Amino acid sequence: MPSTLSPSPERVDIPLGDRSYPILIGGGLLEDAQTFADVPAAASALIVTNTTVAPLYARQLQDALAGRFRQVRVLSLPDGEAHKDWQTLNLIFDALLGHGADRKTVLFALGGGVVGDMTGFAAASYMRGVPFVQVPTTLLAQVDSSVGGKTAINHPLGKNMIGAFYQPRLVVCDLATLQTLPTRELSAGLAEIIKYGPIADMAFFDWIEANIDALVARDPAALAHAVRRSCEIKAEVVGQDERESGLRAILNFGHTFGHAIESGLGYGEWLHGEAVGCGMVMAAHLSQRLGGIDAAFVQRLTRLVQRAGLPVAGPDLGAERYLELMRIDKKSEAGEIRFVVIDTPGAAVMRAAPDAMVREVLAQCCTA
Amino acid sequence: MPSTLSPSPERVDIPLGDRSYPILIGGGLLEDAQTFADVPAAASALIVTNTTVAPLYARQLQDALAGRFRQVRVLSLPDGEAHKDWQTLNLIFDALLGHGADRKTVLFALGGGVVGDMTGFAAASYMRGVPFVQVPTTLLAQVDSSVGGKTAINHPLGKNMIGAFYQPRLVVCDLATLQTLPTRELSAGLAEIIKYGPIADMAFFDWIEANIDALVARDPAALAHAVRRSCEIKAEVVGQDERESGLRAILNFGHTFGHAIESGLGYGEWLHGEAVGCGMVMAAHLSQRLGGIDAAFVQRLTRLVQRAGLPVAGPDLGAERYLELMRIDKKSEAGEIRFVVIDTPGAAVMRAAPDAMVREVLAQCCTA
Questions:
Q1: What is the mean pLDDT of residues B96-112?
Q2: Which end of chain A is more exposed for a tag (fewer CB within 10 A), N or C?
């Protein structure tokens, strides 16, 4: 796989002043010591990964880092969103303190979004902040959590409710890892890629439509372009609004419905990307009802989500449960649910919507 | 008590760019709605306090805030350093999520350092950051945790190991609260006030020596000056080094030995300020051995610590246990303990010291 890609990685720079960092995108990067040449040197590093990813890539990363750190330890967490909680986070602190890690110790997050979010929050909080590097091994993590500095764990009453804005020193998107990704996970990543079209870039949306089969078939060149362009768009938005006071919220297109699905079914039942894929279809219907887009565009988006292998009908949690779950979304203010809606294809805005209208959308989009 | 103070509070500004905030110092401030006139308005506020402070001041603060928030709830945590852990922190998240608190909700920390540290970390982490206000009710919290933005909880393997740098919007030092403070707690606060002399300002040290009896007797004018000057010195140091990469570490004079005492005896056995008072004496002896100060100054500092009602002899944990505990201090690097030592009265530096020398100091300063 790496042989079909250019030998020097593509690079997207995330400009955030003294918290700026690069994203490197290419095949075989995680086993190449050169990839980590600019990571701050320290006595020790801790690779945090999970039981699924560890046997595939932990050893390679450990070897690649051996020259820069006297000790490189690996901590393997239980896999899955259900473990994105304090108990599992505490395993990272236990490992760090158990090994006497100091505040120069570098954490490496090797895995998907769950590993990235937890490792990032651990890095933000351990001794009030140690450096960390993201090595996302899922498509979703490469295009979503690699930009923006959002880290978090879940609380029984809400997803990502406890966390920090904390930037990595480097993000390494090794496209070779996508070849071992389960099909469901690949589709879940495509949901976040598709998202960037309607909210920000219709030329990219056109490109995704034309290349969806190549993406589903894991064509390395198509994946490289999709990852790079997604990171660029996200970087542009985040650069204007690092702490999500306004514009950045548009990146949550599909997420208000999506989080309700995930939380309502129990974390881990649907993948985050699956819930977002379906949530985008629901949010598109809501956008249409609010006068933003026409039925044809809703259909176009629905078709693309479907071709990516994602669900387009929501689970029947009951409208009241959906509303209740969405009211505790972080974007809510004083109990009013605020949705990201498409104003015109390629541009999103935040809107409140009457409960009655949301109920209509749910009735239309959910299967009994 | 408030009547002996000027009606308009003294003010120390902490200049940290867009994270700047004022400290207000005066009598009766917490029950005055005017004190909170610049706090961001929101639907709800949560006062986090403890079971000791709640009956004394929670109601007054709640009334003072009633005009600015539709709902002002009070959460009373168990009192004491032993509860500065994840389980207790989680009570804050449970309360916030249980009441549907949004990301504009303002947290008020009403209590000592433990309440301040936990509430600050909860504010830093809840939805990745909500505004918070410190209302420190102990002398130690007024002169120490009110400046610097350090928030944290303890981990079984180390104190303040999990936390964030997060600035409050406002700090309110109500001197009237010091009148209800137990004597041990007052002395504990004096330890941190005394600290500012040897590390930064010998004129202030002279003033403390001349006024130690007035301070112990809780003279309001003396306390007002001590609190203001301590905050000013700390603000100067923190302003030059917000994230503790260098200079700021001098504020930890006495803390390396002190943390070992607290942790070795079990949190809560000695008060933090008591451990710091004794730790300063130990660090002074170490400074003398490293050639920084003479025996006369060590004696002068020891005498002042004693007059403040603080212990000057450490518990006999055994030298090996002390060394082991100090090696996991956050200032350690690659297993080498780094001490804050007095270079010359009024100026501190970071130094490593040979284990043998540290053992000599421990033998000299610890009672069997």
A1: 95
A2: C
**For domain A2-180, is the CATH number 3.40.50.1260?**
no
Across chain A, which has 368 residues, the per-10-residue mean pLDDT values are: 59 90 95 95 95 97 95 95 93 95 96 96 97 97 90 90 96 96 96 97 98 97 96 90 79 94 87 95 97 95 98 96 87 81 95 94 89
Q: Other C-beta atoms within 10 Å of A78: how many?
A: 13
Element (H, E) at B230: helix B220-240
Of B86, B165, B333, Cβ closest to residue A104: B333
Identify whether B243 is a catalytic site residue: no
Q: Identity (one letter) of the amino acid at A159? A: K
Residue A67, φ and ψ in degrees, nearest 5: -75, -20
Three-class SS state of B26: strand
Q: Domain B183-213+243-367 class?
A: mainly alpha
- For helices A355-365 and A272-289, angle between their N-to-C axes, nearest 10 degrees: 120
Contact list in B for residue A161 (CB cut-off 8 A) is: 93, 97, 126-127
Q: What is the pLDDT of residues B154-208, one digit of tens each?
A: 998 888 999 999 999 999 999 999 999 999 999 999 999 999 999 999 999 999 9
The pLDDT, as a whole number, for residue A368 is: 63
Contacts of A97 in chain B (CB under 8 A): 155, 157-158, 161, 328
Contact between B191 and B138 (Cβ < 8 Å): no
Whether residue B255 lies in the annotated active site: yes
**Band (B7; pLDDT cuts 50, 70, 90):** low
Q: How many CB atoms neighbour CB B40 within 10 A?
A: 12
**Among this protein's residues, is A50 annotated catalytic?**
no
Residue in chain B lying closest to A245 (CA): B103
A93: distance to nearest CA of chain B, Å?
Answer: 8
Domains in chain B: boundaries = 2-179, 183-213+243-367
Q: pLDDT for B305-346, tens place per residue?
A: 999 999 999 999 999 999 999 987 766 776 789 999 999 999
Preferred mutation among A128, A326, A332 to probe B, highest tally of B CBs within 10 A: A128
From chain B, which residues contact A within 8 Å (Cβ)? 43, 86, 90, 93-94, 97-98, 100, 102-104, 124-129, 150-152, 155, 157-158, 161-165, 243-244, 327-328, 330, 332-335
Q: What is the mean pLDDT of residues B270-284?
A: 96
For residue B126, give the nearest of B97, B154, B149 by alpha carbon. Answer: B97
Contacts A151 to B, Cβ<8 Å? 128
Domains A2-180 and A184-367 agree in fold = no
Which residue among A93, A100, A163 sits closest to B125, beta carbon to beta carbon? A163
Which of B93, B104, B334 has its CB closest to that of A102?
A: B334
3-state helix, strand, coil in chain A (%, to 5): 50, 20, 25
CATH class of the domain at B2-179: alpha beta
